[in-house]
Amino acid sequence: MGCSAKEPPQEQIAFTTLLSVNTGPKDHQNNWLSYKASTMEEMQNLWAYFQVQDDLPTVDFAINDVYFFKYVEAGCQLDITTITQSNKVMQINLDYKQEKNEPLDCFAVEKVRTSVILLEKTATTKVTFNNQAYTSTVAIKTW
Question: What is the pLDDT of residues 49-61, one digit of tens each?
């Protein structure tokens, strides 16, 4: 009988997707980029930086933060499906977008996707953001 460390339980974080489009910053070549906006001015600057053409939504920054994630899709459309936290680390989980009984929306070339999500500030106050290459653990930069 050996000892084993028990993994802390993962807590699911509620979020709202404000936008998911095939666009992203022209000057950033990495497969993953993330930023956090805590004010309307920061959000406006990031909206422009990520080259989003849609209308800017209204956000109550007293209770919410807005997160911008740029990632590369290789073959099929990916969307953020869940966000979990465990041991003070937030994990962004991506999965293929597929409607019920519909084939996957796949393509022959890689595409850049930007997802913009809304999270309540209370959901992220106990999370420390870390950056680990090629995992879903993210480093959030402030604008």
Answer: 999 999 999 999 9
